[in-house]
Structures are given as structure tokens and as C-alpha cells.
Amino acid sequence: MTDFEVNPFAESTSLDEDYEGISDDQEYRPQSERIPSFAHDFSGFCCQIGSVIRTGEENILITNAQKTNEGGGSNYITYTIRFNDQEVKRRYSEFESLRNSLTRLYPTAIIPPIPEKHSITDYATMQSKAKEDVVIIEKRKRMLLTFLVRIAKHPKLSNSHIFHRFLESGVSWNEVLNSPPLSTLPKNILQVSPTNLPSQSSSNSTSPVSTTNPLLPTPNPSQLLRNPDQRFLDSELFTNKFANHMSQNLEKTNRRLLKRLSDLSNDYAELGAVYNGFSLVEPGGLSNAIEKVGQAVDSSFMAIRNLTTALESEFSEPLQEYSQFAQMIKQVLRYRHMKHLQLELTEETLERQKAAHESLIRSEEEARRLEAALSRSTIEENSLSRSRASLDSEDGNSHIHEGGENGREEDGYHQNGDLSNSATLNHHSKKRSSSKLFSVLSHTIHGIMDVDPEATRRSSIGKTADSIIQLEEALETSKQDLKNISVSIQEDLDRFQRQKVRDIRDMLIAYAKIQIKWCQKNLNSWEEARAEIEKMQT
């Protein structure tokens, strides 16, 4: 029990903290006073039901559950909800859709659970009568009422006009589901900032939800965080322990106990009949004593049955509810985990885009250097061509005007000069040929890759720069979202912790009172039997 009682949340109230020190105003103060980015502040009230709930004068009851066959379809059970002087009938599937809608509208809130659907075993054993079982229906009535009351007391959920419409008489629930804000909700709430969700409080909310950001990645739930928040890691660890403790230990043991009490009740019923039959056989005072023992056994049978019923409603159902609460907390923490992952993935994407932008810039600079080199090569080629033409012209003139005896010497001299000039020209010719080949190959490769590579590079640089700007904006939004989400979730975890302290305290007190009442009933019956037995004369 030591681990179970350790405070799981950084700023929450521990289980052993004095409950009496928590005021209702502090526990249920409006969320709008604490988290401006998540609040849906409005002047006045969105509707009459909203004004009644905000003043704390609501009186919600589920007065009846009856089989209905509207429209000639299959039978189903409708639950009559009375809100002050209004009445409205809702079926189980509508309660379920209300809860699902609130989960999407308030992804950072711990939405109260509703009773689970019938199991396959129930349908297999009871077949078509499973929906009409009185015990199941009564249990659903109690748990659905608890669901509505918890929403009405929640500082954020109580402001939801969707909830108000659910309680309003004469309102078609299908119409509510197909109207704003529910009709404007994005399919993936991770692609939109929680602050951009449509107003859940306005009675005339018709504006569509803000467009989603396609640059925000959708993370894998199994992916680990690089820089997790230790506070929420501790919350996840405690929630897992709490869920396991509730479902695997408390719930499992309590179900086994109730089954044994039910079996014991049946045994007492059979034993009482045996004693009563035995009293008819024996004469006189012995008969009266045996009959009184039989009556005490019958009383024990009834007391155990009442004990089982009381434990089911006052202890087992709250245990089941808190087991479901643990799963809801996991869902809320998972949402924050996904938004944190989204932030880290956005940072990684931004880093890759910046690296790609730098690479494109370097490629552009390299291309410019190559173009400059090609331009210089072309200029040198033209210069060499002019030099060769000039040399050829001078050689021709010298051969025409010079002769005589010195002709052979001059010829030898010019031959040597021609050889030297020829070698020089051959060297420049090879260089010029290599330059031409490089230029041709370069243009050929660029032609194969792209018709206008320069324009393509500049376009890629521009698109990457725009993407970086958008990613930087998305990153700032994600950071602010994560901050607001963390604050909002921590607020609701603190509120839930206070609620849990109160509820577990009430559950334990109820458990003790039920046991005392059962023991007192048994004691009275067996004291009467003892008095009758003592009258016997031996």
C-alpha cells in the first residue's frame, strides 16, 4: 500500500493530505481563470441550462428506464433524464456519443466514464434478454447518472453547450452531432492546435475549425521521446500502477468476494428451508427453537443478499469507475506524449530543411564558379585563336620578302622557330580541346538532368526557404501548444486527485457502514434465536 499512496503528480494533493482543507470553490474554480489559452470565456451564459449549472442549482436525475420501439425497428432501452423541470429521453448509444464528443472537444480533460457495453458472455448466456436484464439496467442507471453529475461539476465540461443540449428537452441528438462544433472537428486532432478548436461553449457556434497545418507530422505512438518531461513520466508510471492495482487487485478480489457472498446466500436459503422443515418434525419447545434458528438463517440469507447489493452499488461500481478513469488518464497522457513527439519531429524536420537549404546554396555557388570558369576558358580560347592567326600572318610575310644566300640559314632559323611555335600551338590546342570537351560534357549532363537547371535550383532554394519559415512558425505554435497542454493536464490531474481522495474516503466509509448494518442485522436475529433456545427445558 505504500507505493499506492505515494503522490504521483508533481503538484497534486497526496492521498494522506487533509481532505477537509479543500474548499469547493478552490476545487471547482472556473478553468478560464487559470488557463487563458484553453478557456472559452464568454459573457453571460450560452443557454438556460448553462446558467443553472453555473449557479450550482442543478438537480439531475435518471428517473426511469423503459423499453422503446420507435420507428418500428429493434427494441432498445431509453433512460429518462430529469434536469430540474425538464425531461428528455436518451439511449445508451447517445450517452456513448456524448462522451466521445467531449473527448474530442476536450483532449486535455479527464472525461468521466460510462458503464461498459454488454459483454459477449452476457449475450451468449442471456441472448436477447441481456438488454432487458433488470440488474444491468439498474446498474446502468446509477452509473450513467454519476457520469452526468460528474460532468456538471467539472470546471470545463460543465460549460460545454454540447452537454447542455444533451439535457435539453425536445432536442434531436443526431442534429447536434451534425452541427457545429462537432461537425467542424478535424479527423485528426493532432493536426490542429487545441486553441483552434471550435468554441464548445457558444450556443451559436457556426464558424468552421481553423485549417489544419499539413507541415505538422503525425507521430508513431510507440516512438520514444528524446527529451521527456520527468513530471509526466512519473504520472504515467503511477497511472499504470494505479490501473493495475484497481483492475488486477481490488476489482478482481472484490468480484471474488461478491461471488462467494452470493454462493453463501444461496446456501443459507437452502439451510433455512431445511431447518424449517425439521421444526415440523420435532414436537414442543424443541420445534420452536429449531424454527427460530431457521428464521435466523433465513434472516442471514436476506442480510447477505442485501449486503451483496449494497456492496455492488456503493463499492464495486466506484471501483469499476476508477478502473476506467485510469484508462482515461492514460489517454490524456498519451495525447500529450503525441504532441510532444510532434514537437520533436517538427524540430527534426526543420533541421533537415535547413541542411537542405544550405546544401542548395552551396550547389548554387559551385554552379556559379563553374560558369565563371567556363566563361574564362572561352575568353582564353578566343585570345589563342587571335594569336595563332597573327603568327600565321607574320610567318607568311617573312617567307615572301626574305631570300639570298642567307635564305638557308633563315630557313633553318624559321624552321626551328616554326617547330617551337608549333609545339606552343599544339599545347594550347590540346588545352582548348579539353576545355571544349568539358564544356560540351557539362552542358550535355545539365541538359539531360534539367532543361533549365539554374531556374530549378533557384526554385528549390525559394521553396525550401518558404518551408523553413512555415516550419519555424509551426514549431513556435507547437511549443506554445505543448506548454498549454501540460498546464491544462496538470490542472485536471490535480482536480482528479482531490476528487479521488474524497471518493475513496466515501467508499471506505460506505463499506464500513454496510458491514456494520449487516453484522447488526445478523446479531439481532441470532440473539432472538438464542433467547428461544434458552427457553427449552432439558
UniProtKB/TrEMBL annotation:
PANTHER family: SORTING NEXIN-41. It is found in: Endosome membrane. Residues 380-390, 417-426 have a biased composition (Polar residues). It is a peripheral membrane protein. The keyword Protein transport applies. Keywords: Autophagy, Endosome, Lipid-binding, Membrane, Protein transport, Transport. Its main location: membrane. Pfam families: PX. This is 3319_t:CDS:1. GO terms for molecular function: phosphatidylinositol binding. Belongs to the sorting nexin family. The keyword Protein transport applies.
